Fold:
Amino acid sequence: MLKKEFKKKDVNRARNLLMGNSNASTGIQIGYGKKTEDYKEGDVWTEGRKTWTIKKGIKQTISKLDKIKKEVFMPLCCPKCGTVMKKRLDKPNYKLHKKCFDCVIEFEHKLKIKGEYDAYIKKLKAKNSLDIVDEMESYLLDAINTSNSGFVSEDGVIEKWVGGIDKVELTKQVKEAVNTRRTHIEKTLNDKEGA
Ligand SMILES: [Zn+2]
Structure:
């Protein structure tokens, strides 16, 4: 049986997954640190932008759970106009804008009149990209830290690795890729000239 090893190209795969093809930059030199952090049941600590804990032996993000709770418990009425949110488009719009579909339409119409619509859409897109990066980060860190022998492939399948992986090193690489992407998006967001 062929022994699959964790190689630099796999790190690059993770990086490309995060950054998309357009921004793929490879060849970043990584130092090999010896620092390992171990956490036990009930510990709470911060990694990246997330707060983590270990519950019943499984590492998980606290913010992720909070976010899921917020998504699930959509209020009955729109916080802006007080109308009961029962239309098909209310739910996806509430998720994104925290108001009902009619309120979103009205808000966007006002922006168009003021000529601020394009800047608003640009901001929304960047915000969405940041959300995707956040999700990707916790997904990859989850995969790295949940298993000693698994790795996420490009199509999202967790591959089994015979030799195991260097968790500390891979976590570092993922964080680095994530931060690069985040900086890039934030730069786009703050680029006033392009607005
Ligand atoms: Zn409303």
Q: What stands out?
A: The first helix runs from residue 8 to 19. The two ends are 56 Å apart (CA to CA). The chain has six helices and five strands.
